[in-house]
Amino acid sequence: MKEGHTKDHAALADDFNQDEPRVNWHDETLWFIREKRDRAAFAIPDWEMLRETASQIKFHTLSNLSQYLEQFEANAKANGITVHWAADAEEHNQIVHSILTKNGVTQMVKSKSMLTEECHLNDYLEQNGIEVIDSDLGERIVQLAKEPPSHIVLPCIHLKKEEIGDIFHQHLGTEAGMSNPQVLTETARQHLRETFLTRKAALTGVNFAIAETGEFVVCTNEGNADMGAHLADVHVASMGIEKLIPKREHLGVFLRLLTRSATGQPITTYSSHFKKPRPGHDIHIVLVDNGRSVQLGREDFRNSLKCIRCGACMNTCPVYRRSGGHSYQSAVAGPIGSILAPNLDMKKHADLPFASTLCGSCSNVCPVKIDIHNQLYKWRQVIVKEGYADPTKTMGMKAMNMVLSSPKTFKLSGKAGRWFMKTVPFLVSNKMNPWYKQREMPQPPKESFGEWYRKNRKTNE
Amino acid sequence: MTVGLFIPCYVDQFYPNAAIATLQLLEKAGVNVVYPMRQTCCGQPMANSGFEHLTKDCNELFVQNFAEFDYIVSPSGSCVLHVKDHLHSEKHEDQAQAIRGKVYELVEFLTDVVKIEKLNARFPHKVGLHQSCHGQRGLGLAQMSELVAPAFSKPEKLLSMVQDLELITLTRKDECCGFGGTFCVAEEAVSVKMGKDRVADHLQHNAEIITGADMSCLMHMEGILRRQKSNVKVMHIAEILNAQEG
Fold it and tell me: Is the ipTM of this complex over 0.90?
């Protein structure tokens, strides 16, 4: 356990696993989406080529990021968009706040943006007396529940409809015990419609920004980004600097990959392009670094910035499905979050690269071919070297290394170990041994293979 | 052709039958096999835990033990993958690099190098195949369900040569079992849950035996099966390919 956290991933996942039927439900729900992704991907014969193309476009963009950022800035300004630069989360939040203050706005409607989660914008604005309402249905639900999203695409995938019914009963006045999705959705629709109509400022995220044209694209399934941005006088778009693509012609590659990977849909319901403000309307874009240029400088981890936030790695991850998004304690959970978060705060997120079996499924579903599982392995080496490993583990590893680097000690301890397991099994088969808690120990054989070989085959010692 | 038999530490200590079957299978295929007696571990448990820098001595030992052979063969996908990806030597880097190019997991060695077309084996049971991740996604022993690419499976090809063996199909054909090296104790709750789910998939499809090309995953599932007092057993694929049941 580490400072600033009460529990690490393993302990939180253990809590989550106390309710096994819920774990089963969570696992099956996300696996259902993984299967939908498979059907959508397999319907496109050149899927792997599409992934490779996307990966190369992103690689090229990251290799020339400063140039494309300047090009984007110049074109966006020429289109009449106000461009802001934020070095970190704090600066991003201040910029958004100052835009709202200048426009006399105390209530804002927001569409989905994981970057603002990363920056903790909602908390910041609330502390400064500004009310923020999230308009993505899933995000609105977790906002009412006072929880962070547990998934980047499906923010309230950890909640059952009955629980959502309770939240709506408490906050939106639905009947107690009502969990009919149609009724709940209609309630949310009425509630959000009122919000859209009365807010003067709307914030959206950015899925893709195009350097060539200075425009940006926001993808939603609910049309809530459009509703917010079209009805408000001021549109603020928060964007991580890695969201850039060079040309409009590249967009098709990503739009074909994004939703197929995310939810198995052929395309998002709304892929909205914002290029210039209409008369009497303002568009501000905040370009946020917040550790991204540091990650760009870490050669082993640079490719993590290719991420288009589809969440496919979470849906396929057998660990994520059985530990829940909140066990990651990071705005972006799951495998991709586990390679992004240590860059933001290595000490706080030292547990995350270890929350994986390195099975590699994440790398295979990734539409931009991020070598996620290899980066998890590499982060483990960095974290241990930087001294963030548990001291008990370090001692254990050193002891293990001593035994394993000497053939003689290995043979002796193997023999002694097997003798102990057979003669005094309670020494290993006890509650102190995490293996034994829910699993039997292997049954020690009468002889090792080495001993058998010496007896049965010529030795070559 | 002389093959150095690389038997991972835990197989040596806990699953000698898998190692014996591997040796016998290779010998039956006409391969000259030598087991270097001074071998211990490839260093994977340390490396996967973030302590790759501690594996220098293991690496040097590995190079000493195996440099002389034409091929190195092991009944464990994950150990082979570790050697392939991470074996280095300060003293003999050229030899370490050569080893990385000639180390094979047993199944891929039999299908790709020996090119076995038939086996003299009989195993009249319903068998579930666990596609261990490091073998499958790391070494490419079988097509991965995530990739849009033609299907193939090297372990299935070999199992299909075994008389009277019935291979069951699984609902999730290549999901991880949750072993993951030290993950199995560091993340005990999730590891066990993954193992239980993996085992349940096999049980639902009436497997009598769960097999695979990596004993570590099987050890984990065996621990769960035995805790559940199940009659279902685990066997390394070498034991099945080497089986001569009545």
Answer: yes
